[in-house]
Amino acid sequence: MRGALPNWGLTKGKGNWFHALVSSPASRHDQKNYIPTSFFDHHQKNITYLFSPITSNKIVRMKANAGTLTNFEVLDLLNSRGASNDTTRVIAPISTSEYTRLHVYDYLMETPACTQTQEIITNFSDQCKYFKLAKAEILNIINIRPSSTVNLAPILEEPSERGIDKKAKEGILKLVEALLPPPPIVEARGDNEEEETEEGEQS
Amino acid sequence: MFCLSELEDTVRVPPDLLKLPLEVAIKKVLQKLFLDKVFSLTFFLLSIGLCLFIYDIKSAEGGFVLPGDGAPTYKVVFIIVVFRPFVGEVIAARFKESDSNGLRLTLGFFEDIYVPAPLIPRPNRCEPDPCNRNQMRWVWIFEEQEYIIDDSYQINFRVENISYPPVPTERAEDAKLFAPMVITGAIDDDGLGPVSWWEGCSERNNEDDDT
Predict the structure, then answer these.
(1) Of A156, A176, B103, B200, which has the highest C-beta tally within 10 A?
(2) Chain A residues within an 8 Å CB radius of B36
């Protein structure tokens, strides 16, 4: 088959695909009949065909972007699935999926996302419409929570050309100040520090 | 930086998992297949990104047992949460290491974020790190003040590019572990770089040299 690759689900050379696609038993039984010719139809609105390398070379049909999530929403998801259960982390050996989830959880707890709620975010994005910001910029602001004009600068794209002047920027910052809770206080790590220092959360 | 991706795949559920409720069994198989893997298709330059966890199973149909096989196969439509930042996104990361080519930042769950030397604010200089093994340390010189880049504070960077290098067919013995997804970041703009640089900053630093 493919030889011993490490755990990276990537495609290999083109040569294997067609042979694999045609000869795979799953493709013959497949109701919708994914034939190799449809493989080239990658312009079809967001639906594309991928090579699934692990499960014996058949096609994975996908829609790459079914919605963007803010950091808070991911944190919420993790919480609702019990990622915050600290005791089990130390005692039980954890599987790979748990490992990644814990890392993501740890990362998100240090960002402003841990003090936000769904209402805050919906409220904020509604109010942002007044400033005519792009969706990506609103997402950035929610995730980063800029506290000054200089923090806001890398988020806004071409502000001068879009008529976002200093006053508008201040307006955005005031909105951030009013609606989004301040981020948690993360203690600065010393140099060469491997251990995570204690994080204090603002209630 | 996280997205939902909807995928459809044919999933084979091994018989020993059949005692579990179907949804749980399928989730287990999917987790093994997709978690922690980066899916990309360099042929068409499309990608999903780093798959984190299964969000939901939309539908599972089929359950046919193929001849010669003991396990049922389901056609499953499911949604996964993936880590895939967009170009231009500002992300808070931690410093990991640096060398003469630039910096390397980490998010804990993702460690292949590189800031090449040209995207570190100039003027700067690179010097051997006095308190650290064999690393180089980058220092930004601004208005006669020196600002060190190290791991004491969070570093905000902007995503410039995401690349998915193809799997190498051969690897040298001491080569770095292969990274299927590499993010190139920039910290040479207002508000980027270690957050300590901009704390208590007033309006006068608002030079807008955004591209």
Answers:
(1) B103
(2) 7, 96-97, 100
CB B114 within 8 A of CB B179: no
**Is B28's Cβ below 8 Å from some Cβ in A?**
no
Q: What would the CATH number be for the domain defined by B89-197?
A: 2.40.50.140
Closest CA of chain A from B108, distance in Å = 6
Condensed to tens digits (0 to 9), the pLDDT of residues A12-53 reads 433 344 433 333 333 333 333 333 332 333 333 344 445 444
Kindly state the tokens that stand for B162.
């995401």
Facing residue for A107 by CB, picked from B86, B108, B131: B108
Q: Respond yes or no on whether ipTM tops 0.90.
A: no
Min Cα distance B49 → chain A (Å) is 9
Q: Which long-range contacts (CB under 8 A, 24 or more apart) does B145-151 make?
A: B147/B193, B147/B194, B147/B197, B149/B95, B149/B98, B149/B103, B149/B120, B149/B193, B149/B194, B150/A191, B150/B95, B150/B194, B151/A189, B151/A191, B151/A192, B151/A193, B151/B94, B151/B95, B151/B96
A5 → chain B, closest CA residue: B167
CATH 3.30.465.10 fits B2-83, yes or no: no
- pLDDT tens-digit readout, A96-137: 667 777 888 888 888 887 888 888 888 888 888 888 888 888
Q: Where do the structural domains in chain B lie, given as residue ranges?
A: 2-83, 89-197
The reply to whether B9 touches chain A by the CB within 8 Å rule is yes
- Rounded Cα–Cα distance for residues A141 and A164 (Å): 15
Q: Chain B: residue nearest A156 by CA?
A: B210
The minimal CB distance from B43 to the residues A5, A14, A69 is found for A14
pLDDT reading at A144 higher than 70 = yes
**Alpha-carbon distance A132 to B187, whole Å?**
26
Per residue in B109-152, pLDDT tens? 888 888 888 877 777 777 777 666 667 788 887 777 777 777 77
For chain A, say whether B42 makes contact (Cβ under 8 Å): yes
The domains spanning B2-83 and B89-197 adopt the same CATH topology: no
Q: Which tokens in the block code for residue B189?
A: 């703009």
Tokens of A89: 């982390």
pLDDT digits (tens, 9 = 90+) for B155-210: 888 898 888 777 666 666 555 667 778 889 888 888 888 888 777 655 444 444 33
